NADH dehydrogenase
Amino acid sequence: MITEATKARFAREVAKYPEDQKQSAVMACLSIVQQELGWVSPESEAVIAEVLGMPEIAVHEVTTFYNMYNQKPVGKYKLNVCTNLPCKLRNGYDALHHLEAKLGIKMGETTPDGLFTLQQSECLGACADAPVMLVNDRCMCSFMSNEKLDALVDGLKAAEGKA
């Protein structure tokens, strides 16, 4: 599952730290796995643990602490809607529920075509732009009205030829 090319990427991250602190690369290695495979499996955690010389449980603790690491396969587009207090006060839950209705799934589920996974998120650090969401852990979307949510989903579907 983990290729030699992936292990080479791990090595580049590990090289950034002193030999006795190579476990500091754990988050970078988890991110590499997720970029390449879409999620972090227990098998991937075991390889990372071996490469970094740390217990598997220690790697798993990092994976489960941060919600940016997928612990199961997700859709091509992972939509994380912030529902922390500032976003909640500015319709974060309304945005989440609107997406549930539009996509025909509940929070935590993936659409049958494998295109979208919908999740709620902890604070994304853009409270002044509430409600906010993060697409694929990389693209922040602000002031997400129902119209903007519809346009985002419709645009992603169109890009996939599924509009």
